[in-house]
Design brief:
The protein is built from 29 helices and six strands. The chain is mostly helical and 956 residues long. The strands form three sheets. It has a two-stranded antiparallel ribbon. Helix 17 runs parallel beside helix 20, helix 25 runs antiparallel to helix 26 and helix 27 runs parallel beside helix 29. It starts with 19 loop residues before the first helix and ends in a 19-residue tail after the last helix.
Length: 956
């Protein structure tokens, strides 16, 4: 290939100055003509040929690039169908634009860019048949050649065949050097003779002047006309090059030296140059004639063998003709029909394919009418499946069909239209279903088949937002229902009220109206939730069928599964959120009604709270059955109202108890029959009792009051405050039974009430507060005994109350309540002990004072022992009718022990011993009087009042 550079130099002309391919052709033609063997060539003929060659090269030399472009368009360009094909290159193929037709303007740009403005970078190498290293048919038919992936990109030459190693072929014999020994021996002799003859034919010696002699003279003399010997070395090397490039300045200067001198000198030099060239031509002609003369025998031999060669050629032509006729016969009888069968089979297969494509095109053509038909029957899933299938066919099997080029966009637009249609139909259906009137019978789904079609289409489009849309519509319906019910309640009321934006009443209504409103709202919302649950079940069944889940509904038997597992999980989660959100919102709206400010300003009774509790429980249970979840807002609102009622209830009872304790004079009171009946029922664990006494269902006159209260066969002498305390505590228990929602609060309130009673009674009696509050002159032992008995009554009552509140909270946590009741029980027990200690302290102080002034001398009994006995009698008279015998015996046992301790100290101080003296006798008499007093009171068991029990007063 020719090499071109980006800039012209002085040594190499620009590429547009000469036509490379036309000039090379002319040069080669002239060379072939000059090289023809002729023994009669002369200097004049050689000069004429050179002159003709120069004229042709001058004709193909261009002065401007425009001339070169016109030459290329005229000689090296073909027009095919209005397109220009560049043929400027080897074998008529342009390497820059091979076999591609371009427009006139693009062809001109191509010529200027690739052939005019690009310089030659490497010398042109002409290729001929003799340049091939291998025979092309042999190369193409070589069975050992590997598969050519880029056949036309390889270069011709010995590297055309990929180097591969092949194993030995068993069908061919193994050739060794031994097989060539006979041939080498036979040829060796001839070769040695040939070599010897060739050596003897050459001159044996001599210089360039021809002075030497030879054994064999050539047939033709190698001397020139002037007598000189023709020698090829006399010709300059520039004339012996394969390509004599006269357009090159260096070659031109070597061939025509001194051509640029002055005119006279130029004429002389041109004459000398012409003579020199004629001399060179004579040398060449003489050498050619000598070479032809030396090879004349070979020419004659060729001529003599020409007839034999022609005869062989004729026989070969006959055989070839006969072979061709037989091959034609075989082709006509055996090959052509078989090949025709294969061709016909291929044609039939292609036509079947075309027929199938035409049928498929016909089916696709009917897609839009079929989609319209499916949409008219609300079969959205089938319509979407048809659109998806058609789009898949268009993208895979009907690619490039011109008549369907707009169909994919039309199908996509139709798919978006169906999606919008589904969304609109579902919103319209949800509004119509949720806002239709409620019936008495169980709610049924409105137009279930239509709903299933819509939901299936939305699931097929993977549009799961319809669940949230239905949830929002349901919440909007709940808000509208509550607002409408509030308006109806306000319309039926005589009060003038106004509504807020949310629909709640801003001013106060009566509590009865609020209860009616809440009952109506919960009933209506429960029906709405049932309707929502029915639609939810249809959605869930449709999603199950769309995901391939097993369903018992006949409507989903033939549904194809198209919902993925991920989308199915998302749909199930949103459906669960739908029920939970709507149920919670219903509870919140009802809770707003329950927790309204009008309830805070109303006087709420236990029956009204119980009614509210019944309404809330009924609504909560219904919501749990419908939705399967428990909502807390409404119960929390009810608990808040119950807590307020419990606080008010407790505040009233606590203030009432405080007033009773402040006005109590701590004297024994009579016990009415109703209190005795109350205690009997409480002992059985029943706090729900009636104050009226009935016999056979008829009220009778109650019996007269009793002096004491009988509890489990044990008499209790009590003050009025203690009886009223039991009544108040029973009211707490009855209220807790009626209102379980506030039972924990009431249980804590009972603990607070009992602590108040305990602390206040301690302040009034032990702390002597009753002297200032109730106007008592002194706090007697009887007062202390009555307080102790009241506290013991509370200790008896506490287990029953605790068990009652525990039964009201079977599943709740009662650890706090139990801890509180255990704590209050300890407080009451310690208070009882403090009262006993107070009584003992009073008596013991009196005994200590009397024993300090006592001395063992007459008279007997002494005044100290008389005062002690008198105080023992007064104490017994004060507490014996109030406290139980065991407690009285305990008190006197402690007092008796204290007496003995003080007496022993006094005996030790007076140095009185058990020696039978007068003082000992006096002491014995005093003790006899003391023991008789105790025996008379019967405050202690008889075995503890024997005389032997006083022996420990004497020191051993």
């Amino acid at each position: 290939m020719a090499k071109f550079s980006g800039a012209f130099d002085m040594k190499e002309p620009p590429p547009w100055q000469n036509c490379c391919y036309c000039s090379s052709f002319t040069t080669s033609t002239s060379s072939a003509t000059g090289d023809a063997p002729s023994a009669t060539l002369t200097n004049s003929s050689t000069t004429a040929n050179l002159r003709q060659q120069q004229q042709q090269q001058q004709l193909l030399a261009f002065k401007t690039p425009a001339d070169f472009v016109r030459h290329l368009r005229a000689q090296h360009c073909t027009v095919e169908g209005g397109s220009y094909v560049c043929r400027y290159g080897y074998n008529g193929v342009c390497s820059s634009l091979p076999l591609d037709g371009v427009s006139d303007r693009d062809y001109e740009m191509h010529v200027n860019r690739c052939h005019v403005n690009q310089q030659q970078k490497e010398s042109q190498i002409k290729w001929s048949v003799f340049s091939a290293a291998q025979n092309l048919p042999a190369v193409l038919n070589d069975p050992s050649r590997a598969k050519q992936t880029n056949f036309f990109t390889k270069k011709w030459g010995d590297s055309f065949v990929e180097q591969q190693s092949f194993g030995t072929v068993p069908q061919l014999p193994e050739i060794k050097w031994d097989h060539f020994e006979a041939y080498l021996k036979r040829i060796g002799k001839r070769y040695r003779i040939h070599t010897r003859i060739a050596k003897t034919a050459l001159p044996s010696g001599g210089d360039g002047d021809g002075g030497g002699t030879s054994s064999q003279q050539p047939v033709v003399s190698d001397r020139l006309p002037n007598g000189a010997i023709a020698n090829l070395k006399d010709i300059p090397e520039v004339f012996l090059k394969q390509q004599l490039e006269l357009h090159s300045p260096a070659s031109f200067g070597a061939v025509f030296p001194g051509i640029s001198n002055e005119a006279e000198q130029a004429k002389q030099s041109s004459r000398m140059l012409q003579e020199k060239l004629s001399h060179y031509l004579d040398i060449v002609e003489v050498l050619i004639a000598k070479q032809v003369a030396e090879k004349s025998s070979a020419f004659f031999h060729a001529m003599t063998s020409q007839d034999a060669i022609m005869e062989q050629m004729r026989e070969a032509a006959t055989h070839v003709s006969r072979l061709r006729s037989r091959l034609k016969q075989i082709d006509d009888t055996m090959v052509r029909e078989s090949l025709q069968i294969i061709s016909l089979e291929r044609i039939r297969s292609n036509r079947n394919i075309v027929l199938e494509r035409l049928k498929l095109m016909s089916t696709v053509h009917q897609t839009q009418p079929m989609i319209q038909l499916l949409l008219s029957t609300q079969d959205y899933v089938a319509a979407l499946d048809l659109i998806g299938t058609t789009q898949e066919i268009l993208s895979q099997e009907l690619v490039g069909v011109h008549c369907f080029r707009h169909l994919p966009s039309q199908l996509s637009e139709m798919e978006r239209l169906i999606d919008k249609m589904l969304t609109t139909d579902f919103e319209r259906y949800a509004t119509a279903d949720l806002n239709r009137p409620f019936g008495e019978s169980p709610e049924k789904v409105l137009e279930e088949d239509k709903l299933i079609c819509i939901i299936s289409g939305l699931l097929r489009k993977r549009n799961l937002d319809f669940i949230d849309t239905y949830k929002e519509e349901a919440i909007t319906t709940v808000r509208a229902i509550v607002k409408q019910l509030v308006i109806e309640v306000i319309a039926s009321s005589d009060a003038e009220v106004c509504l807020t934006g949310a629909g709640e009443e801003a001013q106060s209504l009566s509590l009865a109206e609020w209860i009616v409103l809440l009952e109506s709202a919960t009933g209506t919302l429960l029906k709405l939730l049932q309707r929502v649950r029915a639609v939810h079940d249809v959605m869930q069944q449709t999603a199950d069928a769309s995901a391939g889940k097993i369903t018992d509904d006949v409507s989903f038997m033939d549904t194809e599964a198209f919902l993925s597992a991920e989308d199915y999980d998302v749909a199930m989660a949103r459906l669960a959120s739908l029920l939970q959100s709507v149920c919670n919102y219903c509870h919140e709206r009802c809770a707003n009604l329950v927790s309204n400010q009008s309830l805070e300003r109303s006087t709420v009774s236990a029956d009204q709270i119980a009614k509210l509790t019944e309404i809330v429980d009924r609504f909560s249970d219904g919501c749990e059955r419908v939705c399967g979840i428990q909502s807390a807002p409404l119960k929390l609102a009810l608990r808040v109202q119950g807590t307020r009622y419990a606080q008010k209830f407790h505040a009233e009872r606590k203030s009432k108890l405080a007033l009773l304790l402040d006005s109590e004079r701590w004297k024994q009171a009579e016990v009415p029959a109703e209190f005795q009946k109350m205690v009997v029922h409480i002992s059985k664990g029943n706090f729900l009792w009636s104050k009226t006494i009935q016999q056979n269902g008829t009220p009778i006159q109650p019996p007269p009051p009793q002096a004491v209260l009988i509890i489990d066969g044990e008499p209790f002498a009590l003050v009025g405050a203690a009886l009223l305390l039991v009544q108040i505590v029973s009211e707490y228990c009855r209220c807790a039974s009626q209102l379980p929602v506030i039972a924990p609060q009431l249980a804590r309130n009972v603990i607070d009430l009992l602590r108040t009673f305990n602390s206040r009674s301690c302040q009034l009696v032990l702390g002597a507060g009753a002297l200032h509050v109730a106007g008592l002159k002194t706090i007697t032992s009887g007062n202390l005994a009555l307080v102790s008995r009241a506290l013991q009554l509370v200790l008896w009552l506490l287990p029953h109350v605790k068990h009652h509140f525990q039964s009201l909270e079977p599943n709740g946590s009662t650890s706090t309540i139990l801890t509180g009741y255990d704590s209050i029980e300890k407080d009451f027990g310690s208070h009882v002990k403090e009262i006993e200690n107070k009584v003992l302290a009073i008596v013991c102080d009196l005994v200590t004072g009397q024993m300090a002034n006592w001395d063992a001398r007459p008279p007997v009994p002494s005044q100290s022992f008389r005062n002690i006995s008198r105080q023992f009698v007064k104490l017994h008279e004060a507490i014996a009718s109030i406290l139980p015998e065991k407690q009285v015996a305990t008190i006197y046992r402690v007092v008796h022990k204290n007496f003995k301790d003080k007496l022993r100290e006094q005996l030790l101080r007076n140095n009185i011993t058990n020696n039978g003296g007068p003082q000992h006798g006096t002491v014995v008499s005093e003790l006899t009087f003391y023991m008789e007093t105790l025996r008379t009171l019967k405050a202690m068991p008889a075995e503890e009042l024997r005389d032997e029990t006083l022996d420990d007063i004497w020191l051993k």
